[in-house]
Specification:
526 residues, alpha+beta, Beta-galactosidase, Chain A, domain 5, 12 helices, 19 strands
Amino acid sequence: MMRKIFLLWQTVKYLKAKQIIYQLWYKIKPKKTLAYYKKALINFSPLQFSINYFSEECCKGNLVFKFLNREHQFQNNIDWNFQEYGKLWNYNLQYFNFLHQKNVNDEQKKYWLKDIAAWLYSGKILLEPYPVSLRAINTIRYLSYHSSNEKFIVESLYAQLNYLYHNFEFHLLGNHLFENAFALLMGGEVFNENKWSSKAKSILIKELKEQLLNDGGHFEQSVMYHQIITFRILELADWYKKTKNADAVFFKFIEATAIKMLDWLKTISFKNGDMPLLNDSANGITFTSNELFSFSDILKLPEPKFISLKDSGYRKYYNDDYECIIDVGSIAAWYQPGHSHADALSFILQHKNIPVITDVGISTYDAGETRNYERSTAAHNTVTINHTNQSEMWGSFRVGERADVKIVNETASSLEAFHNGYKKYNAIHKREFSFNENLIKIVDFIESSKKFLATSYLHFHPNCFVKHEKNVVTVNDITFSFEGIETIKLGSYKFAQGFNKCVDGKVLSIEFYHSLKTTINLSNNG
């Protein structure tokens, strides 16, 4: 019991007072149905979009839906509260991305919009700000494309946005608050609700200044969520400029934000277009980096450029043959760390545009063994002491005690940093990287007055051919050699190709005391 109380304190102490207050308020606040927020005689003014797209085929016909690589067929009618595949699957059902699907006819789409509204009016499902936000954005886009002003659909859309206006996710903040604000600003424009627009713009300005770091990265340090927010910024820049009373200063701020976020995305993405699976990042959830760059072209924004990565906690070393991304960031955002992993001083490597060393990725947000593993230190290319995590990961999105990373020295070809995530053992893990044309050297030190067993992990992409002989490992045409090892073992791990979709890959576990030298020879000469 005392351990649980201490863990809870280690988690809660990082929260903002505002989050705690709203957590308590939303727990005791009376739950109201959609009828409470309804208003009659609503006029809908469509928005104009230059960025057009069709969603992936999540609605398969015959009431078959596929989200997060899991498929389900409903009988007769959709159960909008279907929870068999977890909350995130149900959220995806409620987002209504299938409004932008080619092979679903308009009458069916309108029927489903009316059907979920009827559930919300009756209280068969509860109103929740996040799915309301995404559904509202999708509905506004759909109605704008089709110049539809059907009374029941428009009134229920207004009611959902009116609910959102009174229920922003101040208890969570982070990317959730962005989605709330993007949706409400769209709603304010199409329904001519100035108070909605004013609130949304105020929150967007404040949160973008806080959540967007100096190097352009989003403070939750997930490339996937950075992509999600970048699209919303591009979408906003697209339609907002075409509105009657567009605020020129606000538009310039949004446009500058888009450019900054695209530059960061250009830098962090691999040359082959791959997204590095840093923290909570999964393929198949949002637009790829290359798709976002094409949207940027439509808006005639400047060509994204390479920048120096700093505040977001990542560094990238590359030449014509390889790209190496290193994580030297502490747990972030400190008051919203739900998408963080215990991955300090981990790295990812691609050679000649082919993934070699990779993060495990994520396949679920559901609490349990898989979620625990995918957030753990052992699921990343870094070092554990006594097989424990650097930072305390618990629940689905909770973090207790946290490793703090410090950079000692960095140059154009080297990096030296350490973290204190093992202060419970009075031990420090320090890692030094050096980069040459065809050679990468990594030296790990465990600084402590006591002797601890440490384990370094290297996760090879499932497509790699891995051969292990004594203290040398050959991966494709790359040689890995080690000095200072106690034991070395080649095992297997589950690589997340997306949510609920894993394949086997090879992982190398190297045990050592005090220090370990890893040499990665990328030359074909061995």
